[in-house]
């Protein structure tokens, strides 16, 4: 994921302080120097880097660590707080009737973001509509139409009309019953005068409640000029950072937030309409520093479970009351698949992302996902009785299942062993009281890295 290099570098810097109970001036200078190098390598603006590192240095030298806190944890807490402060609050997006205008250069991901945001609002119980006004880019209309169909939201566009201002005006009228209007505008390869003039005209017609600047995470130092010009033209209320599933450095997008004196609204984390996150600064920085983000994780789990229940007519709570079958395991796997790439999910689990992920091979998560797909193919070759009662799968049945699925018999052994382990875990959960569950959650918090917990979304160090 984008900014992984920054997160890995920051974590490595913190690890140089392990075992130290106090810091001297040289220790602090070394840490600050490494933080500067990490941020500059991620394309964060030089002025921002100096301001941030000065604040970290001052606090690390002047503040006394609380009793029982290691030097590493104390500096980690300071870095966390200062980076959250740098990014600022999330863009205010009330769940009410509103019009949102999207601006940005061609290729920044506006059309994709429009459909993703519409999908997000629809999941919050609102009726959104996307209005496509891009008459400049070939294929913009078809792309927007397809993506809004995937998102199952209302769409308006006119491929035969050349006037984007007219499309915007007629689009608002045609989708008057929608509660959230998202107006996608045309981009260019650079900030040309005609682009600015066009978007100013659309802005005057749609009179948006908020204008969001869409930025590719790879924008780099060019973000500063781009953000400034859009701010002068229409005013920017928030930033949408796209393509965070790539290998871009991402620091330029953070610079744009500061340049427009705005905040971040959404993060685009993949190619499908579901790959979008509402930006939460504490959870984002917590993940970056390897301390997890349980709030974002719980939202993904809840959404995935709901979608799987709708498709499979399946209640997860039944697993705690009856026999845990291979059908239950398959539904769990499908729910996990709906949560997004495993490396993103791992980053949200306190104690599992960050440093642990740094040590894994780059293709480790791909291997795991391939393994899950192999399990699903095997289960598709089983009878209903075998899925309900896997204990009856003997040698002859194993050979038949492996032969029918085209998956090696060894993989079937792995599947059955995985099921046995999950079944034992479910039986333990079923016997848990509320007190046991609370103790388990508390233990997860304490394993979140930094020695101070890891409840991302609530601040890894508590409120």
Strand order of the largest sheet: 3-2-4-1-5-6-7-8
Strand percent estimate? 5-15%
Major beta sheet, specifics?
8 strands, mixed
Number of alpha- plus pi-helical segments: 20
**What is the CA-based Rg, rounded?**
25 Å
Which runs of at least 5 residues are low in confidence (pLDDT < 50)? 351-356, 444-463
Cα distance spanning the termini? 28 Å
* Mean pLDDT reading: 77
Given helix and strand content, the structural type is alpha/beta
Query: What is the number of E strands?
Result: 8
Oligomeric status of the shown chains?
Answer: single chain
Q: What proportion of the residues is helical, as a percent range?
A: 55-70%
Order of helices and strands: HHHHEHEHEHEHEHEHEEHHHHHHHHHH
In one word, what is the shape?
A: flat
Keywords:
8 strands; 8-stranded mixed sheet; 463 residues; alpha/beta
What does this structure look like?
The chain has 463 residues and is α/β, with parallel strands linked by helices. Helices cover 55% and strands 8% of the residues. It is built from 20 helices and 8 strands. The protein has helices at residues 4-15, 25-41, 46-62, 71-87, 110-123, 140-151, 164-174, 193-206, 223-234, 251-259, 281-288, 294-312, 326-338, 342-348, 355-359, 364-380, 384-388, 395-405, 409-430, 434-446, and strands spanning 98-103, 128-132, 154-156, 180-184, 210-216, 238-242, 264-268, 276-278. It has an 8-stranded mixed beta sheet, with helices on both faces. Helix 5 packs parallel to helix 6. Mean pLDDT is 77; it is low at 351-356 and 444-463.
Provide a brief overview of the structure:
This protein has 463 residues and is an alpha/beta fold.
């Amino acid at each position: 994921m984008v900014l992984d290099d920054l997160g890995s570098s920051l974590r490595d810097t913190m690890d140089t302080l392990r075992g130290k109970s106090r810091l001297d001036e040289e220790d602090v200078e070394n840490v600050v120097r490494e933080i500067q190098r990490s941020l500059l390598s991620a394309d964060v603006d030089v002025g921002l880097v100096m301001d941030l590192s000065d604040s970290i240095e001052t606090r690390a030298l002047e503040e006394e660590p609380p009793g029982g806190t290691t030097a590493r944890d104390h500096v980690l807490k300071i870095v966390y707080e200062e980076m959250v402060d740098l990014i600022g609050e999330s863009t205010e997006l009330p769940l009410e009737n509103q019009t949102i205008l999207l601006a940005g250069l061609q290729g920044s991901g506006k059309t994709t973001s429009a459909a993703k945001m519409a999908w997000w609002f629809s999941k919050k119980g609102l009726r959104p509509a996307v209005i496509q006004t891009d008459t400049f880019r070939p294929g913009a209309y078809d792309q927007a139409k397809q993506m809004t169909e995937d998102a199952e939201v209302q769409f308006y566009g006119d491929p035969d009309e050349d006037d984007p201002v007219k499309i915007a005006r007629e689009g608002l009228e045609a989708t008057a019953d929608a509660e959230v209007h998202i107006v996608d505008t045309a981009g260019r390869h650079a900030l040309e005068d005609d682009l600015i003039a066009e978007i100013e005209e659309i802005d005057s017609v749609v009179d948006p409640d908020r204008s969001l600047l869409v930025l590719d995470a790879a924008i780099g130092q060019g973000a500063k000029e781009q953000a400034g010009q859009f701010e002068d033209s229409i005013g920017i209320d928030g930033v949408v950072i796209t393509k965070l599933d790539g290998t871009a450095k991402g620091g330029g997008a953070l610079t744009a937030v500061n340049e427009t004196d705005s905040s971040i609204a959404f993060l685009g984390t993949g190619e499908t309409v579901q790959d979008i996150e509402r930006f939460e600064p504490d959870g984002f920085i917590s993940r970056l520093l390897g301390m997890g983000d349980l709030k974002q994780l719980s939202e993904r789990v809840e959404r995935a479970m709901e979608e799987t229940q709708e498709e499979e007519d399946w209640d997860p709570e039944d697993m705690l009351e009856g026999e845990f079958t291979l059908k239950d395991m398959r539904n769990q796997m499908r729910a996990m698949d709906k949560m997004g790439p495993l490396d993103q999910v791992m980053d949200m689990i306190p104690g599992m992302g960050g440093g642990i992920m740094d040590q894994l091979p780059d293709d480790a998560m791909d291997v795991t996902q391939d393994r899950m797909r192999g399990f699903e193919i095997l289960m598709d070759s089983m009878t209903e009785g075998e899925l309900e009662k896997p204990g009856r799968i003997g040698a002859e049945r194993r050979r038949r299942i492996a032969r029918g699925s085209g998956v090696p018999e060894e993989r079937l052994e792995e599947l059955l062993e995985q099921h046995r382990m999950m079944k034992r875990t479910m039986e333990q959960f079923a016997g848990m009281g509320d007190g046991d569950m609370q103790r388990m959650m508390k233990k997860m918090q304490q394993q979140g890295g930094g020695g101070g917990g890891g409840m991302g979304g609530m601040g890894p160090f508590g409120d």
